[in-house]
Amino acid sequence: MNFKCYDVVEIQGKRYVVIEVISYQEFIIEKTVNYTLNDEMYNNELGTHKGAKNWTEYGIMPVDTKDKNKKWLTIVNGEKDYCTFSETILRSTPPKGYKLYDKGLQRVMSVEGESKARSGDKADYKEYRSIKKDKTYVFFIEDWHGGLTDQAQGERIRLSDVHRRRDQAAQAVSKKIRNAARRKEWTRLGLSWGIILFFLGYLFIGDMTWQMK
């Protein structure tokens, strides 16, 4: 199951718009092999090594304008039954009862949409889980090599509970968010060009002034 930016998805009866798509790949470190993230051995080893994972993280915003909290939908490639539904929190340690389930080093492979992530970013991650009454709850910690730390908490849900919506209402919301993103990008580019032209004009006037002396 794959989604694109500005797709509308429905999860647990609530609709969201995909505003960013981040693809990750796990970096398997062998004790007997020394290599960096950019060399040929890394590229050959990663993806063929037993246990290496790929997953996609979707940043989604509620269609309900009263709810401003971004959620995360994480789908591991090849996993057919379950995915993770979570949101960013300020808590820095897992709640009581959560046990370490997985840890490793992740690398951002590609980014689409409005995101702070960049291709090549790396982070050490830890995933904790707690099972209560047939539900699996999760807690994530990501220590980015740039110095930032992110935490998220949520639950495992069935992929069958995630639906793409394409009705008239969904299309209207998708178009609205897409157009807003384009206007934001045009404004950003306009400001950038304005600063560049101002700087060039300042240099040109300064040069003309010097020649007139």
UniProtKB/TrEMBL annotation:
What is the taxonomic lineage of the source species? Answer: Bacteria, Bacillati, Bacillota, Negativicutes, Veillonellales
Keywords (A to Z) from UniProt: Membrane, Transmembrane, Transmembrane helix
What's the name of the protein? DUF4178 domain-containing protein
- Domain named DUF4178: residues: 7-158
List residues traversing the bilayer: 186-205
Q: Does the keyword Membrane apply?
A: yes
